[in-house]
Amino acid sequence: MDEQDVTQQQAGRPFYFDDYVQGQEHAAGVHTVTAAEIISFASQWDPQPFHIDEEVAKKSAFQGLTACSAHIFSIFCSTSQRWQSGVVQQAVAGLGFDEMRMLKPVYAGDTLRCFSLIDSLRTSSSRPGCGIVGYLTRLENQHGETVFSIRAASLIACDPQRDTGADCTPGADT
Question: Is residue 33 part of a domain?
Fold first, then answer.
C-alpha cells in the first residue's frame, strides 16, 4: 500500500490523544505567500515600509518584500492543523506557544511547508478524558530552509470508544 492509499484511508478520520506517538513527525499544510497577501496583512497589522512597499523593500536589508512575523505565525496556525494524512486532530484547546523563532525572511513567492514533530505526551490531570501534546513545529521554504520554528502545546481529546485504562479514562486523575 503506497502513501496515497494510506492518506485516502485516513482522510477525515478523527485523530485522538491515544493515536499520537512521541517522536513521530507529521507533514502538514503547504502555503504559497503572495506579494498582495504580504501587503494586505502588513497594511493592517505591521505597516513597516519593507512589508507594504515593494520599492522600499528592495532597498531594505531584506532586499525584497517580506512577510511580517505576525503573518508568518498566522501561516503556521493554519498549516499546522492540516496534516497531509487527512486525519482530523481532536483538539480541545491550544495551551500555549514557546520559543518562536523567525530564522529567515519569508519573501513573496515563497512556498512554505509545515512539519510537526510530536515532542511530548502526557495525560491531563485537570481535564479527564484529555491529554496534552507538545509539538516542535517548523515551516520550511521551497529550498528546504527552516524559516520559522515554534514549540506548541494542545489539549487533545482521548477516544471515548477505546478502553485505554487510566491514561484517558474520563474521571481519571493522573
Answer: yes
